[in-house]
Structures are given as C-alpha cells and as structure tokens.
Amino acid sequence: MIIGVPKEIKNNENRVALTPGGAQELVKRGHEVYIQTHAGEGSGFPDDEYVQAGASILPTIEAVYDKAEMIMKVKEPIEPEYELIKKDQLVFTYFHFASYEPLTHAMIKSGAVCLAYETVEKADHSLPLLVPMSEVAGRMAIQEGAKYLEKPLKGRGILLGGVPGVRPAKVLILGGGVVGTNAAKMAAGMGADVTIMDVNLPRLRYLDDVMPANVNTFMSNEYNIRELVPTHDLIVGAVLIHGAKAPHLITRDMLKEMREGTVLVDVAVDQGGCIETCKPTTHEDPTYVIDGILHYCVANMPGAVPYTSTLALTNATLPYAIELANKGWKKACKENRELLLGLNVIKGDVVYEAVAEAFDLPFVRVEEHLI
C-alpha cells in the first residue's frame, strides 16, 4: 500500500502521524511511505531520518494526498485539505466528527473512507488510540491550569500545592476516565486538594483505592457539581462519550457562583466541550475570560509537547496501520472488530450512529460496505 503522511497545518500543531521508526516498520513489510518535507521537524524528526528509514520525501501537501492510498494524520483535516482528499482514499486520523458538522459534510462529499482513531474500540470498551493522547492531555491540564492560576495570567494567584502554613489550591476533575485519572495523579503529585467526580460507582471505588490521600472521590450529578464549583480554584472537564458530543456539566449560570480568577480547562473541547461556555482555542491564543472566569480550551493540547506525543501516538497506531496496509481497509475491518468500530464515514455514508444522530443525518450500517 502507498501511505502518505502530510505535515499538520492546524494552528501550532507540531505532531506528526508517523515516526521514522514507524515508517521503517511499514517499509519493511513492502509498503511505500511518503512524508511531506518538514512534516516531522516539529516533533524532532528531520527528513533525513525518514529517508534512512526507507521513506520518500515529497515537497508539498498536494503531492502527498495525490500519491497516497492511505493518509495518516494526527488532527482532523481542516478546510484547505478538504479538496485534497480523494474518492476511495483511506484517511486514518482523529476526526471527532460529532463536534464539527462542516467536517462531516466535507468528508461525506469527498467519498473517502474515514477511520477515526477516537472510535477504535477494544472488547472491554477501552479506546486504545485515544488513550495515549488522553494521558498527555490529562497531565497537561494540570500543568496548564497551574500556570494560568498565576495572577499575571488572570488567575486567582494561587500556588497549586500551597506552602507550609498556606492551604493548597482546590482542584475539581469532572470524569474519572483516562484524562481524569492522569489529571488527578498530576494534581495530587503537586500537592493540591483534589476531588474527582464520576457517575460510575465501581470506578470511584477503584480510584479511591489507588489514589493518594489528597484525592477525594464524589458522585457526579448536577446538585453535587453546583455544590463544589464555588469553592474550587481549578476545574478540569474530562468527560467523554464515545464518538458523541460531550454533555454540558458546567453551565453558563454556574460561572456566576465561582470566584473571580477560577480556571476552567476543558479537555473535552474536541467533542464539543463539557463546559457550556467552552469554545475551541489554540496554543497561540489559548485563553479567554467570561464573567471573570478564565477558560483554557485548546483543542490540540498534546501538540504543545510533540516529541512525547508523537512517540506515544505512533506506539498505539502503528499496529493498526500495519494491519490496514497489509490487508486493505475492508479485509482488516472485517477481521478486526476494533478497526471496524473506527469506521465513521465510508464513501459518502455515515456509518457511525452517534455522528449521524449529532447532525440528523442518514445512518447506514457499516456491514453494508463490507459485503
């Protein structure tokens, strides 16, 4: 198979979909790998490392899309890329369709096969291609939240871990999944007073067992959230519903109950955000203030630490990419249900039910395309 890796063009996105090591594994199996020039430099991988690994370098993004049968990316295609995607081309990347209708319609129009990292799902319902970036984003949420609590950056002026004789900051984490767990670990390690909320009681029991003493667990419901938000300094939204738009757990009216300079970090922004006042921001302009409350809603948080993120992502995606390249998308998805669940749009049809529901679009069973 011919695999193309374009340079990411989303604002301040420095990750790349494939490391030189990943390229070498594909080349070893007889596949052709084409990398857009400078695609890996933001992650610390220059062109010559890809060449040494057996890949070829192409000068433009247009050349990569034109050549490839399978496109591997990190972030969803953005508007300048829509017309570059070809009919029947396999695009393997994060899409987060349910949060952005124009992208969904563009991919339907393209006639491409869209296999989304975020909906590849194991039998235990874990999301293996979302986990590494969720780990990065969860840890970064605390790192960024601690920074923006500083007064010059419009926060409350609180040191997350406090000092002897002064209480630490209070951190509220909404969601006890991968993002929330990693956020809680980081916040606890920095000495904060942490509360993590979830609707899953067995999950709360597990977290209560494994977390340090400065992490408390609390059942998530509107009443309890309203009770806690006025007293917390940093609130992290870490809620995910597989392939669907995130629910609004923090509503606009709750902002008036918070103290000025409270920091909100919405890691769920890729899926529409679990904070009603959330809107996607960039690393170039990451924050905004509403009602005195600082919002950090960067849609590609792991892009700020691209070396770590690219290695972590390739570790997870490469086995699936090899399977797709070896067998073709149709055979691979027939034989591997994890990949099958990653299919969102196939040749003009929406085949992932949550995406169809999000925009009231016709839903076609994926099996109809695998006959």
TrEMBL record:
Keywords, comma-separated and alphabetical: Magnesium, Metal-binding, NAD, Nucleotide-binding, Oxidoreductase
Write out the GO biological process terms: L-alanine catabolic process
The entry marks the following residues as binding substrate, namely 15, 75
Q: What is its EC number?
A: 1.4.1.1
Residues at which NAD(+) binds: 134, 198, 203, 220, 239-240, 267-270, 298-301
Positions that bind Mg(2+): 323
NCBIfam families from the entry?
alaDH
Q: What is this protein called?
A: Alanine dehydrogenase
Q: Lineage, please?
A: Bacteria, Pseudomonadati, Bacteroidota, Cytophagia, Cytophagales
